[in-house]
Design brief:
The protein is of the alpha/beta class. It is built from nine helices and 15 strands.
Length: 337
């Protein structure tokens, strides 16, 4: 492809997809948006971009030359759209979660390998200064071995009458939709795969959610133990979206958080050793959040390398999410292979 922009077709122009089209894609110059696909004609009419519009993927592929597909459709459509794109020999960037099940994700990864194409999942929480700095701190061994992580997420979602979001109707609204971000960050930062998870989830009698919006879990990543708590119905002060982290090492501990409501403003890492503490200097990240994943996708393809959050890698995060849900159903610990 040389220095040419990555010609990309975007599939899925509901509210979130239109936000991608309006806010994200135009800012990444290495991506050339050449077509929109959305079966719902009324949603397609709301798109403000100038690229050609189609109500079918086949029509778009037949009429518009492209190397890649950006999938921002609803989760239920991910598998079918990603499969169609790969069968059309396109590279794919797909919104999280990758697929409803690990088996379906694995099948798509295998199809991509057969076709010689790349699949990347937009795990956008990785693309912030704090998690990148913390990962480097863990990897460097500066504080000695990591042995415990405490992670908490708190938000109040849709408490006002008439204010609803799609995740309110999910069978597991916290674990299905939100925890995948935290689980992916755990794997990324610890640098190991989970071995076991025991999770409980519950839905208070007064909740406006269809399924349990609160969960607590304990996990093991080799020698590292993790305590995780999350809630969509918390009246406490909200955490940033990446949650509040406390990490204990042999020679110190850190507290950090990331992805507040305003860009990188909430990213901060405090390092404590003995009686002293300091604020860790954070790296500059040119493209954060979804802009970061889209830029990473285009850059990886241009340079012929495997992107961060590849489909192969993301199966580990999806497997942890699935194991947590299985643990809730079985009321027992689940071992990951």
């Amino acid at each position: 492809m040389g220095v040419s922009a990555l010609r990309t077709i975007q599939v899925g122009l509901g509210g979130w997809g239109r936000d991608w089209a309006r806010q994200v894609v135009p800012q990444i110059s290495s991506v050339d948006l050449v077509g929109y696909v959305e079966p719902d004609a009324s949603s397609l009419e709301l798109v403000t971009g100038s690229a050609p519009r189609f109500t079918s993927f086949d029509a778009a592929v037949a009429q518009v030359p492209a190397e890649a597909v950006l999938v921002t459709a609803a989760v239920a459509a991910h598998v079918d759209v990603v499969r169609q794109a790969l069968q059309a020999d396109k590279h794919v960037l797909v919104e999280k979660p990758f697929a409803p099940t690990v088996q379906e994700a694995q099948e798509l990864v295998e199809l991509a390998q057969e076709r010689g194409r790349t699949v990347m999942v937009s795990q956008n929480y990785r693309f912030f200064p704090a998690p990148r700095a913390v990962r480097e701190l863990v990897t460097s061994g500066e504080l000695g071995p990591l042995h415990h992580v405490d992670l908490e997420f708190r938000r109040l979602s849709g408490h006002r009458p008439g204010h609803t979001s799609p995740h309110h109707a999910y069978a597991h609204p916290l674990l299905d939709d939100m925890s995948i971000h935290h689980f992916d960050l755990l794997r990324y930062i610890i640098g190991a795969e989970p071995e076991q998870v025991y999770c409980q989830a519950w839905n208070p009698s007064w909740s406006w959610f269809a399924g349990p919006p609160v969960a607590a879990a304990v996990m093991t990543f080799g020698d590292v133990n993790v305590s995780y708590r999350g809630s969509w119905v918390s009246h406490e002060s909200s955490t940033p979206w990446a949650g509040e982290w406390r990490m204990a090492f042999e020679n110190g501990d850190i507290e950090w958080t990331s992805r507040a409501d305003q860009g990188t403003d909430g990213d901060a890492v405090t390092v404590r050793t003995g009686s002293t503490s300091r604020q860790l200097e954070l790296p500059t990240v040119q493209w954060i959040d979804r802009w970061g994943t889209l830029n990473e996708f285009a850059d990886a393809l241009a340079s012929g390398r495997t992107p961060e959050c590849s489909g192969v890698d993301n199966i580990g995060s999806l497997a942890l999410r699935s194991a947590a849900i299985e643990s809730v159903s079985r009321r027992a610990a689940v071992t990951l292979s």
